Amino acid sequence: MAGDDHLKQITFHNQKTAPIGMGTWRVGEGNAETTKQEIESIHYGLNHGINVIDTAEMYGEGLAETLVGKATQSFDRSDFQIISKFYPYHATPKLIKASLEKSLNRLQTDYLDLYLLHWRGNTPLAETVSGLEDVKKAGYIKDWGVSNFDLSDLNELASVPDGLNCVVNENLYNLTSRGVEYSILPWQKKHNVDFVGYSPFGSDKNEFLKLKPEIKDIAAQKHVTVFQLLLAWAIRNNDVLSIPKTSSLSHFEDNLKALEIEFTPDELDLLDSYYPKPTHETPLDVI
């Protein structure tokens, strides 16, 4: 496998992988120079052991998937995993199949490793699961999952036929949005459902994340950037695949360095004091 044998690794979707993947929100929407940088970033990631790419039909209405398709053609498909997601209004068996075919064409691949319902819609979960099981049996996807599901959603999913075949749930997770820690992460661990945490830095323009000045002080004391600190924190327990956006080589190099950052118990306690762990069920943040 292409990559760096020295990278920290976790088990995700029954495969060894780095604890960060490549996010593609807003990727493929820029000019020729921006597109070139984005393709180079994906190449850099795949050449340095980052082997999960996270995308969706929603991202640029297919532009992100198209760019990923172009960027990955010279790589061995078995060396990396592609996650894509479909709109909730495409969640019937017929529309899942149609959406998936379009995504596969854009991605220039004949299968997805994981196909996720992007968020809850009006289609009954039993119908959606049935559609996902159909495309799985046909070999178009290896497995399926969900995104932006809270505890009640997960429990409902588990109650429908084949609902426990869900292998992943992807939610917002960063230092300021820790709601999943109270019940979602324990539930998923109990049911062998992997967790993907998106937006470790907040939104793509950092508008969502309003950090306290003390966080910058902690980063400075550790001689790392605030972004490296945030990413290292998200993956600190080796039980999360975190998905930062992938758009430039300099950011990617910084992200890789975050894999080497360790925290002392005192540092974690300090971060907890500024952004406490949830002590009860709370509505989950969504971007």
From TrEMBL:
Domain (NADP-dependent oxidoreductase): residue spans on this chain: 19-274
SUPFAM superfamilies per the UniProt record, alphabetical: NAD(P)-linked oxidoreductase
InterPro entries to which the protein is assigned, alphabetical: AKR, NAD(P)_OxRdtase_dom_sf, NADP_OxRdtase_dom
Top-level taxon of the source organism: Bacteria
Name by which UniProt lists this protein: Aldo/keto reductase
Organism: Companilactobacillus mishanensis
